Automatic annotation (TrEMBL):
Name recorded for this polypeptide: 8-oxo-dGTP diphosphatase
Obligatory cofactor(s): Mg(2+)
Cited InterPro entries: Aldolase_TIM, MutT-like, Nudix_hydrolase, NUDIX_hydrolase-like_dom_sf, NUDIX_hydrolase_CS, NUDIX_hydrolase_dom, ThiamineP_synth_sf, ThiamineP_synth_TenI
Residues in Nudix hydrolase domain copies: 6-133
Organism: Vogesella aquatica
Keyword field contains Magnesium: yes
Major enzyme class: hydrolase
Catalytic activity line of the entry: 8-oxo-dGTP + H2O = 8-oxo-dGMP + diphosphate + H(+); 8-oxo-GTP + H2O = 8-oxo-GMP + diphosphate + H(+)
PANTHER family from the UniProt entry: 8-OXO-DGTP DIPHOSPHATASE (PTHR47707), NUDIX HYDROLASE FAMILY PROTEIN (PTHR47707:SF1)
EC number: 3.6.1.55
Length: 313
């Protein structure tokens, strides 16, 4: 890998529609990688904050005024011509209609189903992150009861992502529960992830594994599953999860919870401080939260929220 004397700070933004579609732009002639597709953005100028740079770049590139954007992800990428530190934002609201001011093209895309290529290499992990949901649902059968949990899942009209977290169950009990949940959510396109020893899950109808903090610390390489997440409590653990190439992390607890009596919560300011200037991988805020807290979590730099008791009430 070539060494570069300086890393260039760059901002990039994903315009987000309510249906989950996002916008990509092509790189114009005269720039490195002409014709490649990317998330629009540009360099952060001296004395400029990343958010101010984002607003300026979108005004210059496509003539829109960004009115609501939240920090999302940080990536460092080494190109042949330069190293760049990319701070990605998701843009939820803007004024005006995007117009190509620099001879580029724009295209709305559906997560997981791109219709344009080639993509700028630095953006591959970002595209995968957009396939993640806004909300993850963690099971807690000791409190909800098995029947109530399965009934609630059956009532879902969407395709939920469920993390089975039942440390009190042995392998056989866990396998039976996973099978029951799979029969409900997989026909609707939902995803099923299990917090357990990865070796247990061979042959189970799962989409991924969730590593607790002990397994994360002991992990030397990413487990071979389509989706791999980790439960984290600090920026150090988040950075380790990112270094292993994991897809997301849970971070908490943000608010006081019944399962953590007497333990100090991060709070929203603590969450934002832990994720600043942007998270190294998509983070779901956890701890006393539910879907109603989604915007606050995004403002703090999280991808979304993970809810436990709130998911089954």
């Amino acid at each position: 890998m070539p060494e570069h004397k300086q890393t260039i700070p760059v901002v990039a933004g994903a315009l987000m529609r309510p249906d989950g579609q996002f916008m990509l732009g092509s790189r114009p002639a005269g720039k490195p990688y002409p014709g490649y597709w990317e998330f629009p953005g540009g360099k952060v100028e001296a004395g400029e904050t990343p958010l101010a740079a984002l607003v300026r770049e979108f005004q210059e590139e496509m003539g829109i005024t960004v009115t609501h954007a939240t920090p999302w992800l940080r990536r460092v990428h080494h190109y042949e011509h330069a190293s760049v530190e990319l701070l990605f934002y998701r843009i939820w609201a803007w004024q005006g209609e995007p117009q190509p001011h620099e001879g580029q093209a724009f295209a709305w895309q559906q997560p997981g189903h791109l219709s344009v290529k080639p993509m700028l290499p630095a953006n591959d992990p970002i595209l995968r992150s957009l396939q993640l949901p806004d909300v993850l649902n963690l099971t807690c059968i000791a409190e909800t009861g098995r029947d109530a949990l399965l009934d609630k899942l059956a009532q879902h009209q969407d395709a939920p992502w469920v993390i089975v977290r039942e440390p009190q169950k042995n392998r056989e009990q866990l396998a039976a529960l996973v099978g029951e949940i799979s029969e409900i959510i997989h026909p609707r396109g939902g995803k099923l992830i299990v917090n357990a020893d990865p070796a247990w899950l061979k042959g189970w109808p799962v989409d991924g594994v969730q590593l607790n903090s002990q397994r994360l610390a002991a992990c030397e390489a990413r487990p071979h599953f389509a989706w791999v997440g980790a439960s984290c409590h600090s920026r150090t653990e988040l950075d380790r999860a990112a270094a292993l190439g994991l897809d997301y992390a849970l971070l908490g607890h943000v608010q006081a919870t019944a399962s953590h009596p007497g333990q100090a919560a991060l709070g929203w300011d603590g969450l934002a401080a832990c994720l600043a200037p942007a998270a190294p991988l998509p983070v779901f805020a956890l701890g006393g939260l539910r879907t109603a807290n989604l915007d606050a979590a995004r403002q703090a730099g999280a991808h979304g929220v993970a809810q436990m008791r709130g998911a089954w009430q």
